[in-house]
Amino acid sequence: MSGIDSVTIKLGTASYPVIIGAGVLADERVWVSRLNADGVLIVSNSTIAPLYLARLQSVLEKLNIPHQLCILPDGEQYKTLTTWQQIIDALLNMRANRKTTVIALGGGVIGDIAGFAAACYMRGIRVIQVPTTLLAQVDAAVGGKTGVNMPVGKNLVGAFHQPALVVADIDTLSSLPEREFRAGIAEVIKYGLIMDAGFFDWLQNNTDAILTKDAAALHYMVATSVAHKASVVSADAHEQGQRALLNFGHTFGHALETLTNYSKWLHGEAVAIGMLLACAYGEKTGRTAPEVTAKLNQLLGKIQFDISIPEDITAQNMIETMRSDKKASYAGLDLILLESIGAAVISRGHRPELLLKDFPMEYLG
Ligand SMILES: NC(=O)c1ccc[n+]([C@@H]2O[C@H](COP(=O)([O-])OP(=O)(O)OC[C@H]3O[C@@H](n4cnc5c(N)ncnc54)[C@H](O)[C@@H]3O)[C@@H](O)[C@H]2O)c1
Ligand SMILES: [Zn+2]
Questions:
Q1: Has this prediction a pTM greater than 0.90?
Q2: Domain count, the chain
Q3: Does 29 share its domain with 48?
Q4: Is pLDDT at 1 greater than 60 in this prediction?
Q5: pLDDT-based confidence at 362, cuts 50/70/90?
Q6: Of 138, 154, 174, which closes a domain?
Q7: Same domain, yes or no: 133 and 240
Q8: Chain CA centroid to CA 44, Å
Q9: 149 in Cβ contact with 124 (< 8 Å)
Q10: CATH number of the structural domain spanning residue 238
Q11: Which atom from ligand 1 is nearest to the alpha carbon of 147?
């Protein structure tokens, strides 16, 4: 099977493969030995189902596996216990048993809700993630975090529930809205920044191929990102230590998202600016090597990220918001900072007054 990569998430008996390639969704050779189910519930949404459901259904038909559908409305606002209940009801209606498998066909929203329903039904049945956004392929579908939003905050209720298999078909990225695609690239850049300087250089040198969605470039970009997420998740499945490095740029980014009520930026766009702020702050405090921020700025420019921050967002209200983030501790904020490109560290105890003193004001509006 040329053109198909398999990356293993190593978690002992819970290990699973991530299959990456063009056309893997509709390729029954990918599924035949790995889909061990006597029934399937496909969970998708009203945008993705018309595009990709038929491909998955034809594979299941060829493999003689009966399936039911649960098609949800599209949007983050539907990542709730109400839609979770719809999936549970669909499982109850089909009399799902321990050999039933949930297949999540969609972006991170579908993956998170469907994964959480699979985690809960009969205390846990198998879920297969078929991520169709760049963000979901390189991040959300891998690692077993599932959940829903609550009115007071995002992802507050959920469970760790590793998938049995992840099938990342890079062909699905062709229909992804351009803005969603670019936002996903922020998480890709993150892997280069925190753990792979060579990959960061490759991204710098291949932006044209990426932005024109050259198949070989997308394949390499997704496979490399998944391999990095795999190594972090394998070492620290429950985010006790190293997995926290994946939050690079996210403390600043979450503050931007919160202060704008999640209405101005897509998650990846806020993370891109967050990474820039983390680099600039790191440089100001002497923890980050001098040229790092400039290099990131240059790459974000090539991808055409808009890094401007509205005038009403001040350093004070950003820091206040970062403090109330769930990851803040009494001794000060823990931040992920870079020492250099490819080397991230957990840097503890950033007290608000020091954060304010060295805040990279030049990036604020
Ligand atoms: N579990 C984790 O570890 C983890 C990690 C990061 C993010 N997340 C979660 O993921 C969610 C964001 O995921 P997302 O960025 O994939 O957003 P999303 O799932 O909302 O998808 C973005 C949009 O693209 C559409 N879409 C998806 N695939 C498409 C395709 N191939 N062609 C055309 N349109 C398509 C979707 O219907 C949606 O409108 C958030 O809820 C976030 O909390 C989870
Ligand atoms: Zn993220």
A1: yes
A2: 2
A3: yes
A4: no
A5: very high
A6: 174
A7: no
A8: 17
A9: no
A10: 1.20.1090.10
A11: 1
Torsion sign across C-alpha atoms 104, 176, 108, 296: positive
Looking at beta carbons, which pairs linking 230-238 to residues 24 or more positions away fall under 8 Å?
Answer: 230/7, 230/8, 230/9, 230/10, 230/18, 230/142, 231/195, 232/195, 233/9, 233/11, 233/142, 233/143, 233/144, 234/9, 234/10, 234/11, 237/11, 237/143, 237/144, 237/160, 237/162, 238/160
CB of 155 within 6 A of ligand 1: the answer is yes
Whether residue 343 sits in one domain with residue 222: yes
The boundaries of the domain holding residue 323 are 179-363
Ligand 1 atom index nearest CA of 175: 32
- Domain co-membership, 78 together with 187: no
Q: What is the number of residues in the chain?
A: 365
Answer yes or no: do 148 and 286 share one domain. no
Tell me, in angstroms, the distance from the centre of ligand 2 to residue 253's CA. Answer: 9
The CATH number of residue 45's host domain is 3.40.50.1970
Query: Which ligand lies nearest the alpha carbon of 159?
Result: 1
Residues 211 and 342 in one domain: yes
pLDDT digits (tens, 9 = 90+) for 216-273: 999 999 999 999 999 999 998 787 778 999 999 999 999 999 999 999 999 999 999 9
Which residue, by CA, sits nearest to atom 18 of ligand 1? 107
Q: pLDDT of 44-61, one tens digit each?
A: 999 999 999 999 999 999
Indicate if ligand 1 lies below 6 Å from the C-beta of 136.
yes
Domain closes at, from 122, 154, 174: 174
Residues 191 and 120 in one domain: no
Point out the ligand 1 atom lying closest to the alpha carbon of residue 184: 15
Take residue 301 and report the two structure tokens written for it: 């420019």
Residue 103 shares a structural domain with residue 124? yes
